[in-house]
Amino acid sequence: MPTAHDRVPVESPSPRAGEPASGQPPVGPSAGSTLSRRRVVRVLGTVGAAVLVGVGGYRVFDTAAVNPGHGQAYEPWRHWRDDAGPMGAVAAALLAANPHNTQPWLFRVNATAIDVDVDPGRHIGSVDPYRREQHVGLGCALENLALACRARGLRPDIAVLPDGPDARRVAHVDLTPAPAQQDDRYEAIGHRHTNRGPYRALAIPAEALAELVDTAGLPGISVQWIVDPASMAVLSALLVDAAEAVVADESQSRDGFAWFRGTDDAIQSHRDGLTLDAQGLTPLTLGLAKLLPASTRSSGDAFWVEQTRTVHTATAAAYGVLTAASPDDRVTQLDTGRLLQRIHLTATARGIALQHMNQITERIDAERLAGQRATFSPRFAGVLPPGAKPLVAFRVGYPLRDARPSPRRSAATVTQRTPR
């Protein structure tokens, strides 16, 4: 999902070092960086073997600097097609977008039905106090599940919230044999990743944006495309302001940072959360960042804000905002997740990158929870049609480079087999 924002602790090259903001060749480190890529390269060239054999050598091992995306934490991306039955559908579901890669789902499976439950302990606390993003993420998983069932010759009949909006079970899926159906979205499941890197300076045609959207069976959810330069500039500024407000909020900063996995041991142990590998950095910048000492929450916050300003908003070709009349309704949130996943999968199939950017709604929720005067809500409303209330936002564009996968728990870990 909405993988929310990406606060990652990196005391490393400036986010702009080697990181072109508009598809143009890099022109060197940004003036404000405290440790530019050029300086790191110079230091490494001087210290050389001492760095690699000494402390640097430990960091190479500790962070998997020379072998990112390896190990059991990434096996689900390679084996999601292996099982032809309901367990294979679950294997596809757990590759869905979700906030901070918390993977807030559990499944109960037999030959004729699958139940999807929320895992209440997997949430981002004050970043998502009303669990909106959590349920959107569950909707994303539900969409992957439905696609994978159809591809396996199983017709999924989905009942959402069969026990009510506050129950742990968010969906019951009855399975009936049917002719197998496959489409581009199903084929894209294993290639879909949030792309946090720079996008090319190319506009996406309006018809191409429209073709990303399929609202069939999801009434009441709309997609607002923000494409004109003036509205994009307003929304870009609002995204930067919201990022700064999130990191200035001690609770939100702390709760987001709790999901960062800074070493390979942590990645392989937890198999969730945010990683350096998924931040869209160049291979050189990523490798150098991993050689540096592990950093702090404050430096990670600063990295995210700077990336938001110089990469995320600076290179977006367009923004999308999913809106509804009743954003607090749980069914609406699940349906929003299904639509968001459809958009992301279709975009992936067509070579368009997508990054979830939810800091504005996170600040709207924080102000609402604290009973503070609303500052972000009216500003966001200014770029949306009258009456349209936002649930999630994202940017799209043609990527400068491919995104790397995020770790995932295995299907066996998140699944309980049940009798028919």
TrEMBL record:
Which InterPro entries does the UniProt entry name for this protein? Nitroreductase-like
Q: Where is this region: Disordered?
A: 1-34
Q: Which domain of life is it from?
A: Bacteria
Gene3D superfamilies xrefs:
NADH Oxidase (3.40.109.10)
Identify the NCBIfam families for this entry: Rv3131_FMN_oxido
Q: What's the protein called, per UniProt?
A: Nitroreductase family protein
Q: Which organism is it from?
A: Microlunatus aurantiacus
